[in-house]
């Protein structure tokens, strides 16, 4: 059985037609958004976050995160929105730095219907969301790429950097090196929340990469 966990909740509204979102009849509460984000980042109070999540989606809203898409442009920031119908990708530049309550008229780069998603894979630093129909995504820096998966880091929790070294006779350090381990549990919480919420029938495959340095 897939565990039910909390997730960041942000209210906004979209349609499935490409390019522009369609306004809905609900409202966005920034204070509610900030509290829900804190729940998932710290991995606590899942019941309250889940209740906020359900209210947002049932009102026609979406769950959104700022994100990095490594297969498109690692130096640019994006916003990813999850609603009942689809996953949408926005360039941060079109949102003028505000993603808590996205303007319904803001243009999005791509929309991937949940029915097209085949797999969600979690790793140390990223989620891989794989789908059948390719989409083309452009960054604020002008990079464009056609992809069949989103290699996405949803911002909010960072990993751990551990330094290892050898100590000399007089206290000097030798062979200093750092090993970074990503926020694996954070990725898995999001993976299972997405699957539980948007794939009640268990059609989407779930997989995980082991904990360790790198991806």
Describe the structure.
With 215 residues, this protein is an alpha+beta fold. It has helices at 30-42, 46-58, 184-198, and strands at 63-69, 73-82, 86-91, 110-113, 117-122, 127-138, 144-154, 160-167, 173-181, 205-208. Helix 1 (30-42) crosses helix 2. The longest helix has 15 residues, at 184-198.
Strand order of the largest sheet: 4-3-2-1-7-6-5-10
Shape category = globular
What is the number of beta strands? 10
Order of helices and strands: HHEEEEEEEEEHE
Q: Strand percentage, roughly?
A: 35-45%
* Category by helix and strand content: alpha+beta
Count the DSSP helices.
3
Residue-averaged pLDDT, rounded? 77
Task: Tell me the radius of gyration.
Answer: 19 Å
The percent of residues in helical segments reads 10-25%
The biggest beta sheet reads: 8 strands, mixed
Rounded to the nearest angstrom, the distance between the terminal CA atoms is 26 Å
Q: Looking at the chains present, what oligomeric state does this protein adopt?
A: single chain
Low-confidence stretches: 3-26
Would you spell out the secondary-structure blueprint of this structure?
Layout (H helix, E strand, L loop, with lengths): L29 H13 L3 H13 L4 E7 L3 E10 L3 E6 L18 E4 L3 E6 L4 E12 L5 E11 L5 E8 L5 E9 L2 H15 L6 E4 L7
Parallel strand pairs: 5-10
Antiparallel strand pairs: 1-2, 1-7, 2-3, 3-4, 5-6, 6-7, 8-9
């Amino acid at each position: 059985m897939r565990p039910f966990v909390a997730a960041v909740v942000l209210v906004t509204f979209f349609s499935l037609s490409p390019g522009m979102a369609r306004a809905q009849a609900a409202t966005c509460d920034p204070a509610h958004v900030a509290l829900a984000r804190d729940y998932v980042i710290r991995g606590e109070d899942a019941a309250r976050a889940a209740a906020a999540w359900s209210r947002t989606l049932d009102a026609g809203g979406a769950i959104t995160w700022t994100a990095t898409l490594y297969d498109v442009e690692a130096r640019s920031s994006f916003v990813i929105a999850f609603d009942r119908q689809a996953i949408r990708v926005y360039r941060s530049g079109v949102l003028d730095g505000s993603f808590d309550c996205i303007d319904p008229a803001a243009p999005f780069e791509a929309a991937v219907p949940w029915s097209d998603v085949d797999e969600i894979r979690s790793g140390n630093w990223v989620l891989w969301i794989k789908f059948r129909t390719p989409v083309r995504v452009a960054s604020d820096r002008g990079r464009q790429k056609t992809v069949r998966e989103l290699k996405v880091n949803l911002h909010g929790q960072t990993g751990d950097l551990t330094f290892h070294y050898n100590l000399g006779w007089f206290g000097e350090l030798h062979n200093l090196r750092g090993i970074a381990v990503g926020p694996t549990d954070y990725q898995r919480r999001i993976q299972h929340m997405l699957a539980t919420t948007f794939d009640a029938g268990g059609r989407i495959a779930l997989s995980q990469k082991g904990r360790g340095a790198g991806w």
